[in-house]
């Protein structure tokens, strides 16, 4: 029996609604597999926890998490009660950083049964490799002179190591896909870090002569996500650019609520963390209508990570079948609830796996 110990952090808002659906789907996958078992330990770390304890997680939170095989997280953030930079840096970004989850991979593809807002979605299938350890998301800087003369300085940090690591990951990934890497740059406007980014990209690509490459400024690239997403295979982007591109990736599939993600620790020292692209969606929380597909597809990425690609693919097929059958939450034009979609995915999965 392959036993996987998973730390589960539903977090805030709709994280608390979609995570239980996804763990139920994972249990169905394990049942079908027969030799696989997920053992969940749930942690209530969230903005509610902050209100009670004055912090997002206990002092020894990371020590507790580091012994798990993976972390499965919903979303963090309840800006009504805790400022977003405090809640995210106190938990989500803290885990990404301390556990050296240096890469965030986020696929987007034409999804069967979904109405893309694009006139001609034409089967796009791309994956963004987002640098996840530095870049524009940094604590380096400060504020001085409160009031009228206030100055805020925010530094973006680009190291050779971090930049090259993300790019090499993208090239390796492209080898297993369609052999094309696009670099998201902005070297016309950002004077130091982006020309550096371009230089590192040119260096790395010289090692991958079989891989085709392109480089676009992020503004044009964002527009191409809308006008011709088919031209992309793997896109490598800085932390901020990757963050923005992947919400667009969700949008062109039909909803940000279906976009999955994985924060990968590459050195094996710490667990990786699986959490969808979307946030806690306070505007729809509590109504039971959050789309669980982002979280369930994220579970599929966790299955892939543990070497269960075959079942992972069946799960993705089951999600697409259910969507195609019209069992959908309101964000993608349906009338089903979060739980109904989850149950339909489990049933469909059992059906396809009993016939094969
Ligand atoms: N990784 C994380 O934990 C993230 C956390 N956040 C936090 O989440 C909170 C809300 O942030 P927003 O900027 O509003 O982004 P958001 O992703 O939570 O919501 C943006 C829009 O998409 C919709 N949406 C998102 N997920 C959905 C789903 N599964 N089903 C249906 N509709 C969905 C929401 O209803 C909202 O209209 C903030 O506190 C923010 O800091 C935001 C992004 C990522
Ligand atoms: C914070 C955020 O929006 C993200 O990691 O996607
Ligand atoms: K999330
Ligand atoms: Mn984001």
What is the topological layout?
Layout: E1 2-11, H1 15-33, E2 36-42, H2 47-53, H3 61-65, E3 70-75, H4 84-98, E4 103-109, E5 125-131, E6 141-144, E7 151-154, H5 160-176, E8 180-185, H6 193-205, E9 212-217, H7 218-227, E10 234-237, H8 239-253, E11 262-264, E12 272-274, H9 293-305, H10 309-324, H11 338-355
Parallel strand pairs: 1-2, 1-3, 3-12, 5-10, 8-9, 8-10
Antiparallel strand pairs: 4-5, 4-11, 6-7, 11-12
Bound molecules: 1,4-dihydronicotinamide adenine dinucleotide, pyruvic acid, potassium ion and manganese (II) ion.
Pyruvic acid (PYR) binds next to loops.
- The class by helix and strand makeup works out as alpha/beta
User: Which CATH class of the largest domain?
Assistant: Alpha Beta
DSSP strand count: 12
Instruction: Give the overall form.
Output: globular
- Please give the CATH architecture of the largest domain: 3-Layer(aba) Sandwich
Keywords: Manganese, Metal-binding, NAD, Oxidoreductase
Pfam family, one: Iso_dh
Catalytic activity: (R)-malate + NAD(+) = pyruvate + CO2 + NADH
Organism: Neobacillus rhizophilus
Fold and architecture overview:
It contains eleven helices and twelve strands. The protein is α/β, with parallel strands linked by helices. The chain folds into two domains: 202 residues, Isopropylmalate Dehydrogenase (3-Layer(aba) Sandwich); 138 residues, Isopropylmalate Dehydrogenase (3-Layer(aba) Sandwich), CATH 3.40.718.10. The strands form two sheets. A ten-stranded mixed beta sheet has the order 2-1-3-12-11-4-5-10-8-9, with helices on both faces. Strands 6-7 form a two-stranded antiparallel sheet. Helix 7 packs parallel to helix 8.
């Amino acid at each position: 029996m392959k036993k996987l110990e998973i730390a589960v952090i539903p977090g805030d808002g709709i994280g608390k609604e979609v995570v239980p659906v996804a763990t139920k789907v994972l249990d169905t996958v394990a049942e079908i597999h027969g030799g696989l078992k997920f053992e969940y330990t749930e942690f209530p770390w969230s903005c509610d926890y902050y209100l009670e304890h004055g912090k997002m997680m206990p002092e020894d939170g990371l020590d507790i998490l580091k012994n798990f095989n993976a972390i499965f997280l919903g979303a963090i953030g309840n800006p009504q009660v805790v400022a977003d930079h405090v809640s995210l840096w106190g938990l989500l970004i803290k885990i990404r950083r301390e556990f050296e989850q240096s890469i965030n991979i986020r696929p987007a593809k034409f999804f069967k049964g979904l109405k893309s807002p694009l006139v001609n979605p034409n089967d796009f299938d791309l994956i963004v490799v987002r640098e996840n350890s530095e870049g524009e998301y940094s604590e380096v800087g400060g504020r001085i002179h409160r009031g009228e003369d206030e100055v805020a300085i925010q530094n973006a940090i680009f190291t050779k190591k971090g930049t090259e690591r993300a790019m090499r990951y993208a090239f390796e990934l492209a080898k297993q896909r369609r052999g094309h890497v696009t670099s998201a740059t902005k070297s016309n406007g950002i004077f130091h870090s982006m020309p550096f980014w371009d230089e590192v990209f040119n260096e790395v690509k010289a090692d991958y002569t079989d891989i085709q490459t392109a480089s676009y400024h992020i503004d044009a690239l964002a527009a191409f996500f809308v006008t011709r997403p088919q031209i992309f295979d793997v896109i490598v982007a800085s932390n901020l650019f990757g963050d923005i591109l992947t919400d667009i990736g969700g949008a062109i599939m039909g909803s940000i609520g279906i976009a999955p993600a994985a924060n990968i620790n590459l050195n094996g020292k710490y667990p990786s963390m699986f959490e969808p692209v979307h946030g806690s969606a306070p505007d729809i929380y509590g109504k039971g209508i959050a789309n669980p597909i982002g979280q369930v597809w994220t579970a599929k990425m966790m299955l892939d990570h543990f070497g269960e690609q075959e079942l992972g693919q069946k799960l993705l097929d089951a999600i697409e079948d259910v969507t195609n059958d019209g069992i959908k939450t309101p964000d993608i034009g349906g009338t089903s609830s979060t739980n109904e979609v989850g149950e339909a995915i489990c049933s469909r999965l059992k059906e396809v796996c009993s016939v094969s």
